[in-house]
Amino acid sequence: MNTYIKLLIAVLLPFAALSQDKVEGMVVDGGAINATLGLPGANVYWMNSQIGVVTDFDGNFSIPYDAQYHKLIISYVGFESDTLTVDQPRKIKHTLNPSNALNEVVVNQKRDAVQKAYFSSQNVVTINSAELLKAACCNLSESFETNPAIDVNFSDALTGTKQIQMLGLTSPYLLITQENIPMVRGASQAYGLTFTPGTWVESIQITKGAGSVVNGYESISGQINTELVKPLTDNAVFVNGYANQNGRYELNTHLNKKLTEKWSTGLYIHGNKRTQKEDNNGDGFLDAPLANQINVMNRWQYQDPENGWVSFLNVRFLNDEKQVGQLNFNPDTDRVDQKFTAANLLGAPVLNGTEIWGSEINTRRFDTSLKLGYVFPELPFQSVGFQTSYSLHKQDSYFGLNTYDITHESIYANLLFNSIIGDTKNKFKTGVTFAYDGYDEMVLTDDYSRVDTSIGAFFEFNYDNLDNVNLTAGLRVDNHNRLGTFVTPRLHVRYTPWEKGSLRGSFGRGKRAANIFAENQQLFASSRTINITNAGGDIYGLDPEDAWNYGVSFLQGFTFLDRPGNVSVDFYKTDFKNQIVVDWENPREISFYNLDGKSSASSFQVEVNHEILPKLELRTAYKYYDVNTDYTAGNLQKPLQAQHRYFANLGYTTEVKENGAQWRFDYTVHALGKQRLPDTSSNEEAYQLGAYADPYSLMNGQITRVFSNTFELYVGGENLTNHTQDNPVLGADNPFGSNFDTSIVYAPIMGRMFYAGFRFKL
Amino acid sequence: MKKIILTAVVVLMATISYAQDKNKKMTFDVNGKCGMCKERIEKAALGVKGVKFATWDIPSHQLSVIMDENKTDAMKIKTAIVAVGHDTKELKATEEAYNSVHPCCLYREDNSDDSGHH
User: Which residues does the UniProt record annotate as the domain TonB-dependent receptor plug (chain A) (predicted)?
Assistant: First the structure.
């Protein structure tokens, strides 16, 4: 073998041409049968230097010569390293011999357990499970009480449903997703958030402003995504019980089991019930509905990290029954709505003045979803995802004389491909979306059934220079049978001017079909007549809603008194090109019409978070809204919207003991400025409300005692100052009369209320 | 016989790993100690043209990269890493580059896992 090498060197040497400042040469594989083979990929470097090269495909190398280095090291995995003394630029031919200690070479392929903190270009707030426990009740609509990004309002005087708002716009203008699949939309808009029990929620991500194009074109003021608990990571057994003073009981049970290395499953059962009749304000109407809900979900999780597969399959069934109205209403004998009586009496009901006003809202929902994710095992930055869901939502309801039935069947599919351009500083997502929505809607005696289908494609590019700039630019093109073909651009930029500072800007478009009845169901519990002013549009005679959102925000972290804190300021504006104006200004009617003129929602927020004393966290925020719309009566602020809002939350936790024992204290105050009320000046004096509702504040508190990792108890109180609205039901004395209205609600109906509950986990 | 097999394996290995792979995966030691080091190392590696993916593991000090072999090689990545002050097995950072890192990152003095602090 050596003879060959010597021969080769002898042959090659004459060709060697020395250069002034380089050491050039060839590394030969001494283990090859034909030992003339060059060794590609060998390391050639000066000892203790910053200079190194790798031999090329033929085993040749060229390394700069520097007089301060003398030892040239040649190494390669599986070969013995050699150190050559080189004192001048020259030509080198070197043979590396295979190492017999090959078995000592261990290929290490460790991956990070935790991914790098991602400094998103979007203004995202994550609410984790610890934060969710601060307000122990009960479902998703009540999970935002301790977060200033979301405002919680009251939708009506009867159901006690909480309505959420972001940037001054109500939830229809938000895209609410569950694990990135659109969830609370269409028929479920009014009560959908109350159909996700709080214990099912693992975390919530709130994106202010335009949001990503990946999940569709519908989001206008923001996105709320809910991650549910996962069978693999949730407790094997979890039981939560809750009861409050007003007779509401809740029970949540989770059972999770890891079946094999790859499969896990979870069964989640929620039930709630209220049978106690409450009427503390003496208006003869129930303050809170008689309710009964059963909600069952089964999840399957498949995880095969070696081959890169992740999958989730969900099946959920819900049955929810609510009864509201006058205390002595009996649904079996007192029902008088038009659909019901038309079927029985072949005619409109003839009222004799002794009827009792009541309402039932019964919802059944089935939904199932499948998520499939594949990460290329060799390319961790590249993945394919497929999400699909089917839901059937059926609400049968009546409110006094008004019947409202809606069945919404929905199919959604989204195929997504993630990869990079060049390197992981330039990422992209691209894919296609398909959606089908079939509405079977009966409003009083009018049939508004319709079918919406859309198909779209999107591309979203993300650039991160790993330092101070992060940019997300997205574009989608959709074709919708009622909205037409349209383009949705969205852009988010983050810039870090200095340490702990983060400046963000965003703009984007959103477009949607307003489901005017499903979104404004409180209108049915009033004697207002429905008036759709426009005709000729594709959705209830109206045009699609179309808006642009712009925003800037600045976040600055600081350390004060040796403890961390941050302050953020943000300003967002939503400009409507078209909006379906919901006009409550005439107390005899509710009108829907296309925007004629201007409509915009501006919001300004300052938030400060700081650990003011050891273990005592303060979060406080001031918000200002200017939400004005050109109504037929002129430009007005949105009714029932406080222009000034103040929020503070104090949280204190004791040190966690070894067995997990801990005390947690939490206190929240919300102060709302005056709210403009819809015009009631044309009513008789007894049924007039002022122009504005007075400012007021609300306080909530909760104490949690964690005894161990398996058991904890909590007690709390809501509305501690016992502030309630005096006359939430206008015209309560004659609910079938023309003044009856339950839609003007600006303060709680329920007074001070205490609750208690427990959590047990294994 | 044994030697022939070994040789064959080595040759085969060299051949396989040196078919110019567009997504060549490679792992090697880089010295450092904390989250700030991690950011600096990954940024330096991704700054090399042809490097598609880079992640440095704090406890094991292993840098995993995926690169296009047509455009770069391990030594170019290591050169970039020593230039920002982090030693590799082959190449060592200059005193000047080493001293340019944040004081808490001075791993040569105390090469412990400091991931919990940053």
Answer: 120-222
| Chain B interface mutation, best of A39, A44, A50, highest count of B Cβ atoms under 10 Å | A50
Q: Is A105 domain-assigned?
A: no
Alpha helices, DSSP H, located in A577-706: none
pTM for this model (two decimals): 0.82
Q: Which residues contact A387 (CB under 8 A, 6 or more apart)?
A: A180, A181, A369, A370, A371, A372, A412, A413, A414, A416
Instruction: Name the residue range of residue A181's domain.
Output: 114-227
Tell me the three state secondary structure of residue B14.
Answer: helix
Instruction: Please tell me the predicted confidence (pLDDT) of residue A465.
Output: 87
With respect to residue A11, please indicate whether it lies within any of the assigned structural domains: no
Residues 13-32 of B with CB under 8 A from A: 13-14, 17-18, 20, 23, 25, 27
Residues A297 and A151 in one domain: no
B52 inside 8 A of chain A by CB: yes
Tell me if A15 is assigned to some domain: no
Q: Say if residues A28 and A42 touch (Cβ distance below 8 Å).
A: no
What are the chain B neighbours of A32 within 8 Å (beta carbons)? 7, 11
Q: Which ipTM did the prediction report?
A: 0.72
The closest CB to that of B52, out of A31, A112, A381, belongs to A381
> Is the CB of residue A18 less than 8 Å from the CB of residue A89?
yes
Contact check, Cβ <8 Å, B46/A50: no
Length of chain B: 118
Q: Are residues A213 and A281 in the same domain?
A: no
| Residue A625 forms part of a structural domain | yes
Can you say how many angstroms the Cα of residue A695 is from the centroid of all Cα atoms in its chain? 31
* Cβ of residue A57 closer than 8 Å to a chain B Cβ: yes
Whole-angstrom distance, CA of residue A548 vs CA of residue A550: 7
pLDDT in tens, B33-42: 888 889 899 9
DSSP per residue, A106-164: -------SSPPP---SSEEEEE-HHHHTTS--SBGGGTTTT-TTSEEEE--TTT--EEE
Choose one of A211, A227, A243: the last residue of a domain: A227
Q: Which residue of B has its CA nearest to A103?
A: B6
Contact of A499 with chain B, judged by CB distance below 8 Å, is answered with no
Q: Does B115 touch chain A (CB under 8 A)?
A: no
Mean pLDDT for the stretch of residues A424-437: 95
| Contact call for B11 and A33, based on CB within 8 A | yes
Q: Is B46–A420 a contact, with Cβ atoms under 8 angstroms apart?
A: no
- Report how far apart, in Å, the C-alpha atoms of B99 and of each of A137, A444, A556, A655, B63 are: 54, 78, 29, 39, 21
Q: How far is B107 from chain A (nearest CA, A)?
A: 17
The answer to whether residues A220 and A237 belong to one domain is: no
Suggest the residue from B20, B63, B73, B89 to mutate for an interface test with chain A (most A CBs closer than 10 A): B73
**CA–centroid distance for B26 within its chain:** 8
B37 — contact with chain A (CB < 8 Å)? no
Interface contact B91-A111, CB threshold 8 A? no
Sign of the torsion angle spanned by Cα atoms A319, A325, A327, A328: negative
A59: left (phi over 0), alpha (psi -120 to 50) or beta: left
H helical segments located in A243-379 = 331-334, 338-345
* pLDDT at residue A196 is higher than 70: yes
* Domains of chain B from N-terminus onward: 18-105 (3.30.70.100)
Name which of A521, A428, A502 is nearest A194 in CA terms.
A521
Q: For A274-288, how does the pLDDT look when each residue is reduced to its tens digit (9 = 90+)?
A: 999 989 888 999 999
